[in-house]
Amino acid sequence: MPHTPGPLRVRDRFYIGVEGDPFSLAEVKSCNTVPASDVETHEANARLFAAAPELLAACKMAIKVMDLASENGFALNMEPYFLCRNAIQKAEGTA
Question: Distance (Å, rounded) from C-alpha 65 to C-alpha 46?
Fold first, then answer.
C-alpha cells in the first residue's frame, strides 16, 4: 500500500498533515523515552516525519545515480548506497 503523498507539513508544532488539507495525518506525542515536557524533541520529530516523503524520494534518486555511476566504472563507497537502500526498504515495508 502506498504512503500518503507529500508534501507534508508540520502544523501547530506537533501535527503533521498534507499541505493544503485542513486535517492532520498524525500527532507527535510523548513516549517512554521522551517525556511530554521535552517539547523541542517532539517538534524535531514532527519535522523529521513531515520530511519523510522527500527523504524517500531523495534516497531513490541517490540509488539511481549510484547505480549509473557503478555501471560506468566509477568506484563507489557502498555505505551510502546501503543506507539509502535500507531506508527505502524500511519505508516501503520490505525490510
Answer: 29
Cα–Cα–Cα angle for 14, 15, 17, rounded to 5 degrees: 150
Tell me the one-letter amino acid at 63. I
Grid coordinates of 35: 517525556
> What tens digit of pLDDT does each residue of 36-77 get?
777 888 888 899 999 999 999 999 999 999 999 999 999 999
Q: What's the pTM value of the predicted model, to 2 decimals? A: 0.82
- The β-bridge partners of 26 are 16
11 burial type by CB count under 10 A (0-12 exposed, 13-18 middle, 19+ buried)? middle
Mean pLDDT of 17-39: 79
For residue 36, give the nearest of 8, 13, 9, 10 by alpha carbon. Answer: 13
